[in-house]
């Protein structure tokens, strides 16, 4: 069977323009994005559920689901064409650990203690989107550029993991022990 990451990259290339998925720049840098997605996995314990907010074309959630079949992931994406692509990708890649929620994550009715959100909003804004669904301690993970420390401070969250990803980006994980 073809490598699943390679198959995902081919799907992205095929549907990127028609479904308005990702820019040509992201397509050209896919190996960097796949490496970043693996870094999320380093923070996540065995067997947990993860809510990925604003999954877009599936970064980091699809490569993460491929690398970590022990995780169960909900991919929340409000744009219908992107959600349809996520459904298609999960089916073609045989990702039984992926569920797609097509809607605003503020209406998602599940519960979770692990949230990822890449290129969606500052940490404190993402927290407000998911607070209704949070189990505590709650872990928030994102790839960030400069400025994230102010976001963490606004939230009063503990920063427990920072990993440089190159080009000034860092993988950052925050923990909230109780609701804000
Ligand atoms: C800039 S894209 C980033 C996509 C992907 N995470 C990435 O890193 O390439 C942000 C995505 O978040 C989605 N989004 C923003 N707010 C959302 C919400 N409240 N509920 C669900 N999806 C949301 C948008 O539709 C968009 O597809």
From TrEMBL:
It is an enzyme of class 2 (transferase). GO terms for cellular component: cytosol. It is found in: Cytoplasm. The keyword Acyltransferase does not apply. SUPFAM superfamilies: S-adenosyl-L-methionine-dependent methyltransferases (SSF53335). One of its GO terms (molecular function) is rRNA (guanine-N7-)-methyltransferase activity. Gene3D superfamilies: Vaccinia Virus protein VP39 (3.40.50.150). Its EC number is 2.1.1.-. CDD domains: AdoMet_MTases. Keywords: Cytoplasm, Methyltransferase, rRNA processing, S-adenosyl-L-methionine, Transferase. InterPro entries: rRNA_ssu_MeTfrase_G, SAM-dependent_MTases_sf. S-adenosyl-L-methionine binds at residues 54, 59, 105-106, 118. Its main location: cytoplasm. Belongs to the methyltransferase superfamily. RNA methyltransferase RsmG family. Specifically methylates the N7 position of a guanine in 16S rRNA. This is Ribosomal RNA small subunit methyltransferase G. The gene is rsmG.
């Amino acid at each position: 069977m073809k490598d699943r990451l390679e198959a995902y990259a081919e799907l992205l290339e095929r549907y990127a323009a028609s479904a308005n998925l990702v820019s040509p720049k992201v397509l050209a840098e896919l190996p960097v994005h796949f490496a970043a997605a693996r870094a999320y996995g380093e923070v996540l314990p065995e067997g947990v559920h993860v809510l990925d907010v604003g999954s877009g074309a599936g970064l980091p959630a699809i490569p993460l689901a491929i690398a970590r079949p022990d995780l169960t992931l909900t991919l929340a994406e409000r744009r219908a064409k992107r959600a349809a692509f996520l459904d298609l990708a999960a089916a073609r890649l045989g990702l039984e650990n992926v569920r797609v929620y097509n809607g605003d994550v503020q209406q998602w009715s599940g519960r979770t203690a692990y949230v990822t959100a890449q290129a969606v909003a500052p940490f404190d804004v993402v927290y407000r989107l998911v607070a209704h669904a949070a189990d505590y301690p709650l872990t928030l993970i994102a790839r960030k550029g400069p400025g994230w420390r102010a976001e963490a401070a606004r939230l009063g969250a503990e920063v427990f993991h920072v990993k440089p990803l190159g080009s000034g980006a860092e993988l950052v994980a925050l923990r909230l022990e109780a609701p804000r």
